[in-house]
Every structure is written in structure tokens, then in C-alpha cells.
Amino acid sequence: MNSNLSNIKKSKLYLDKGQCIGIPTETVYGLAANAYSDKATSKIFKLKKRPISNPLIVHYASLKMVKNDCELNKIFFKLFKKFSPGPITYVLKLKKDSKISKNVTNNKNTLAVRFPKHPLTIQLLKNLNYPLAAPSANVSTKISPVSKNDVKDEFGKKIKFILDGGNSKIGLESTIISLINKPTILRLGGIEISKIKKIIKNNFRFDRKKKKIVVPGQSKIHYSPGIPIRLNVKKPKVKEAYILIKKKKFSNKNYYYLTKNNNLKEAAKNLYKTLRKIKKNKYKSIAVEKISKLGLGLTINDRLKRASKYDN
Ligand code: TXA
Ligand code: MG
Which of 44, 142, 156, 265 could form a disulfide with 138 if both were Cys (CB 3.0 to 4.6 A apart)? Predict the structure, then answer.
């Protein structure tokens, strides 16, 4: 616990100086900086090689702080009560007098807001007098990090500090819901659509087939290990890594299992770790077994599909 406390103090020192650091969350690790500072947030875009047109999620530990920056509505409070802190991000109206840096919002009047569940990050946020802008701590289009070492893999010595909070428990990014007009799911994520549906009934929109891209960051290849991925494969090629959902009776050296017994939560947690491992083991391509589209399976399929868009 003492080392945790001193690491939180260290994190605060770096952040107060306008630096970027790695922070743990229950979804994936974030690359964090003071959301009120133009200088600090511009560093995030540079490090990630992220286009400035792609806005950032801002992380809070309390409602009191959010009220300074956003207009909160009834549906927000309903969802907040049920799901926050946790893997859900709300897109809200930005207040005119908010101090949020224009870099964060791409100069628009909406803000993506999240209340992460990791105890160290909550403690850190409580010690700061600004919220933290934090995209996933990976270079743009690459796999999101789910441990301190993954973040190191992405940025090496380019960032000075990573707050170590162990492995991310959920392993997939947050579900994003816009509450600007009729509630609309913008990105599938760690909270299943069916759970959200239960809270706000039919009063929301989610169109899986919709061609139009609603979240700027979802427009390109994403979550890519940098090698081709084939989906719904029954029989892999000889030199291909093969990702399977459940442990089989027989095994091959190139087989990578996401779960012991087909639990989708476990599969979600292991997905990015497995993709990273396969890349490290120098495979040139990946085949993936068919994965259920129920619950978190929908999010897993979404991420794999985007990752498979790689062509080079
Ligand atoms: O779980 C998560 O959400 C992680 C952890 C670190 O919190 N963060 C994360 O951030 O996934 P990032 O930047 O990798 O993805 C955020 C997505 C992007 O696709 C971005 O375009 C979208 O959120 N976004 C940010 N602000 C938005 C806004 N005001 N309106 C619509 N989409 C927004
Ligand atoms: Mg990301």
C-alpha cells in the first residue's frame, strides 16, 4: 500500500508539471494528462500520433467536478447510478464556461466523460484539481494496452512514468453512449447493450448495420496487431496462429485459447493480451475461430473485425 501511495504522489507530480503518464483503468490503460491544459493534452496527440480531429475521453472521480464542465440530464443520472464507476462513457453537452482544453473536444461543444473503476486511478483523481484526458495508451490504430508492460511496449522511454495497477480486469474499452439527443450507442464496449436497455427501456438507438461512422476514432483500422487477421476460420493454415474461444482436448503449438470454459468475460479480458503475445511470437498472420455474438461477444467481434481490416 505504501508503494501505491508514493506512486500516486509521483503520478501527481508528473501530471501537475504538464506531463503525460500511463494510468490503469478497469477497461484498458490510459495515456493521461491534465484535461484543462492545452500544452499537456497536445502531448497526448503527439505521443499517440493521433489526429487532432479525434476527441478524447475525460476521466473524473466525482459528480461535483463533472458539473463544472458538462450539463447533466435525467438519463445521465439514471445510467450513472447503475453503471458508474465502470466501463461506460457518456457524451454530454459541454458547458460554455468549462475549462476543458479545446484540444480535448476538437473545439466542439460535446465532451466524452467517464468514471473509471480502478482504485489507484480513483485515488489519483481525488488528489488532482483537474480531470484527466486519457485515450487508450497505444499508438493510434494499434492494440490497446491491458498492463504496465503493454504501455511500455507502446511508448518505451517516451513517457516518464506508468502507474502500475496490475492487469485490466475487463480488457476491452468502455461502451460509449451519446446523451446529446436520443441516447445513442456510439461504440460497443465493456457494458452489454442489453444491460443499458434494461435501464432506459426502448428510449435509445443502436444500429449495428449503420454504415455511417459516429465515433471519429472508429473510422479507420483499429486495435490492429499489425499482421493480417482472418475471422470465422474452421481450419487454420500451417504457419498461422489460431485463436480459439475454448480449450480443446487436443492442442497445437500455434493454438491460443481465450478461455478455459467459454466464459465471454474471460475471453474479453484475454483478447488484447493474446493478440499482443501472438505478435511477439513472430507469427505473420492470425486466424480466429467463430465467436458468439451474444453479450460481450458482440464487442469482441466488433474489435476483431476492425483489427482484421489491416492490409499491407
Ligand atoms: O475504456 C476506455 O474508454 C479507455 C480508457 C482509457 O478510459 N479510453 C479509450 O479512449 O478507449 P480512446 O481515445 O482510445 O477512444 C475514445 C473514443 C474515440 O473513438 C473518440 O473518437 C470517441 O471516444 N470520442 C471522444 N470524445 C467524443 C465526443 N465528444 N463525441 C463522440 N465521440 C467521442
Ligand atoms: Mg483507443
Answer: 142
